[in-house]
Design a protein that fits this description.
Elements lengths: L1 E5 L2 H18 L4 E4 L5 H13 L9 E4 L1 E3 L10 H8 L11 E2 L8 H14 L5 E4 L21 E4 L2 H7 L12 E4 L2 H5 L3 E6 L4 H7 L19 E6 L3
Parallel strand pairs: 1-10, 2-3, 2-6, 3-5, 6-9, 9-10
Antiparallel strand pairs: 4-8, 7-8
Helix pairs in contact: 1-2
The structure holds 2-phosphoglycolic acid.
The site of 2-phosphoglycolic acid (PGA) has 6 residues, from loops.
Length: 236
């Protein structure tokens, strides 16, 4: 794991956008794994700006998002589909059919998850996976547990995550209690992983830097990925 410490969130956002744009420029048909949350917002802003300046072209890019809440429609401003449209997709030239986000309102969640894995396999896997990290060390919605869960599946959100995410809702009660998340194996199968962490992640970054690996800190599995970079902004 290659850890880059930068001074500010601004710098983090610029560097991560540059890494993503470089991937797309190297391979225009890149398959990207994308993340939601507060941390990637600046990265997406920079990518939109680069697109507007003709520095990156999304016309052949395929994306797979890490997760989606169960029960929220695409039109719901708290859904991750809505987030991605607002922050990235509606501002760049990615074809709608190249965008993949789990359907949290699928009638059959199990087959939705299986289908998601199949689609990733059909395009020969993810070239570059962008990840945020939860205060509890989750990646995607892979919450701390006794074991690592491999595949895309239905997950129950922990109270820590519900508390952390209630800022986007009217109250903690409004935060969905379940979600669909890519599994740890799905994430680890990406050829390259880019983790972005802001200054609010000091405590979990400290634990991650201890180098041990435990499903109690799901992100700690990333120590075993052959091509994983973490960009950590220590200041705002
Ligand atoms: P954040 O979320 O970027 O909003 O802190 C990260 C995560 O929970 O994965």
């Amino acid at each position: 794991m290659n850890i880059i410490t930068v001074k500010s969130y601004h710098e983090l956002s610029k560097i991560s956008a540059n890494i993503i744009a470089a991937q797309i420029n190297k391979k225009p048909t890149s398959v990207l794994g994308l993340a939601t949350g507060s941390t990637p917002v600046g990265t997406y802003k920079n990518l939109v700006e680069m697109y507007r300046n003709g520095l990156v072209d999304f016309s052949k890019v395929i994306t797979f998002n890490l997760d989606e809440y169960c029960g929220l429609s695409r039109e719901n401003p708290q859904s991750y589909y809505y987030f991605m449209m607002e922050n990235l997709f509606s501002h760049v030239n990615i074809p709608q059919e190249n965008i993949n986000i789990p359907n949290g309102r699928a009638m059959d969640i199990e087959s939705e998850c299986r289908e998601y894995e199949n689609k990733i396999r059909q395009v020969n896997g993810i070239d570059l996976q962008l990840l945020g990290i939860g205060h509890n060390g989750h990646i995607g919605f892979n919450e701390p547990d006794d074991v690592f869960h491999n595949n895309t599946r239905l997950v129950k959100l922990t109270q820590t995550t519900i508390e952390a995410n209630k800022r986007f809702f009217n109250s903690a009660e409004d935060v969905p209690k379940t979600a669909i998340s890519m599994g740890i194996k799905t994430i680890m199968s990406a050829r390259e992983i880019l983790v972005i962490a802001g200054p609010d992640k000091e405590e979990i970054m400290g634990k991650l830097l201890e180098q041990s690996c435990s499903p109690r800190i799901p992100a700690s599995i990333l120590h075993y990925h052959p091509n994983c970079t973490v960009i950590w902004a220590k200041g705002n």
